[in-house]
Amino acid sequence: MRPHLSLLAICTAGLSAAAAAKSSPVEYSTEPGYKNANHIFNTIQDSMRQWGSSLHHNGVSFFLATVPAGTQFYHGTSRSSFVNGTEWLAFEPEHAMNFARPHMGPPRRDPQHGGDEKDGKGDKGPNHEELRRKSNTPPVEEAQSDEDAKGYLHTYAAAKHLRLVYIDGMSAGKTQKGTLDSQDVLLFNNTIGNGDSGRQGPGPMGERERALGACELAEDTWAGRIDGVLRMEAGFEVILCDFERDLSLVNIIQVNSESGERGPGPKHDDDGKRPKGPGGPGGPGGPGGGGGGPDSSRWARAVSARYTGIGGHRVSLNYDNFITAFTYDIDLFPKDAIHPRLDHLSYAELEPIRRDLTATILTHDPREFSWDWQATTDMVITRYSEELSYFSSERMVSMESLRAQIGMLLEPFLDYSERNAVNEAERCATQFIPLPYQESPTIPARAVHGVTHSICATLLEAAAESDLSSAQKRIKELMEYLDWTTWKQCRGCQDNEICVIPIWPMGSVEDYAHPQCKDALQPYDSSEENYWGGFR
Ligand SMILES: *[C@@H]1O[C@H](CO)[C@@H](O)[C@H](O)[C@H]1NC(C)=O
Ligand SMILES: *[C@@H]1O[C@H](CO)[C@@H](O)[C@H](O)[C@H]1NC(C)=O
């Protein structure tokens, strides 16, 4: 595993020697096998973390995931009895509480077709029925009318080790920014919401269709090897295909009905009504209010507690065998998009990804051994994040000081019997990569190597610059390429504050650009421009 270092001059005279004329980590990453190394590295780093997955909100990757038997989940509903069939589960009770409330959907127009209260659009088109029929899911029965008046929080435990497909990014965020591309475009070929009559295009939610579609894939295409899908919005959630098969009931409690009244649901500007589609575990609406206020305060603490990970080893991902659009020969950033998109790609262009995803599911087990590449990316980030930021800052006063500090950082990789910049960069780059993966690199191994090599080579080059601004320019370009979300973390929040970033449907453009510590009871300011724009 010794990539061709075309861009780095052999620099035997040491750190002060002049480096090659031109360098760019981006160019390095275009070498075969190293394409999109930065994005794949961040995909691994952000996985199952509310922080990174909210900022890098357009996931284009799929992971095999497992949740250990016994793990507790929450489901909010207007029903007081065990829920059957395909439904939503939240990892955090605060998330499910948003749905533990009286039935608030539109009148059930067509009881014959199941009168599905979770389907906010009242979409009973043929497509919907077709999906339901194929997925063999019984129509959800009418809730008893007396149950409609109250809200219930159900606690379930996984009755077995669940086998899930994790759809990364903010994949439960019903936005038009691309958070749904990997489902609606790649998995479902833009069929979601086609039965919708009252609205232009797909929308507002299409969640029941997505759930039934995913479970149909699980049953047919994926040969029953998958129990559901794992996604994220304001909290991680599971769409579980068969509640009665895979869950044990722990308890059902009736929630304070006033608390249910606070139930959220984004404002909707078309008709002045809230979209009533399911937004998550258990029912209509999405977590959080339209733009601010008390609704978000209920879940903001719980959600921010999972910024750095779902915790408790509740989810394990198979990092050695995952599928990411970043490794395919397609343009994911049309018109210089900041976040990857799939909606401009044809069915045929996406077919290799679908095919490989199916093959991976059919041949790999979510629970088989895989290297914890997220832990490896953590080592890289904790080693370099702060120093890169410092080196590029105004607090760095002179080239001599920068060169000396880069020297200290790279010292362990310099062999003074034989100074050689290529070998130095390579020793530095492979520091965190286990030997077997250096010898036969996998996708995550290449991504980590691509990123660490960019860092090490850029630092060597920066140290070889003669003036501070040129050196810092190299480091700033590197940081732009790396795009680590650690650089957006707030510092020094008080104990009544959380660091606020946009989490659909909440948050402003400013929250995205400059996350700040804010009062956890008033995290979102509805007067600012909403980051997410309209609703899906
Ligand atoms: C759900 O399934 C269980 C077990 O199959 C059954 O006993 C129960 O009556 C069902 N509940 C409803 C509401 O259909
Ligand atoms: C995917 O969608 C396109 C456009 O609607 C359609 O022409 C094509 O037949 C679909 N392909 C499959 C396999 O469903």
Automatic annotation (TrEMBL):
It comes from the Eukaryota. PANTHER family: ENTEROTOXIN, YALI0A21131P. Residues 277-294 have a biased composition (Gly residues). Residues 107-133, 259-274 have a biased composition (Basic and acidic residues). The lineage of its organism: Eukaryota, Fungi, Dikarya, Ascomycota, Pezizomycotina. This is Uncharacterized protein. InterPro entries: YOR389W-like. Residues 1-21 form the signal peptide. Keywords: Signal. Residues 99-147, 257-298 are annotated as: Disordered.
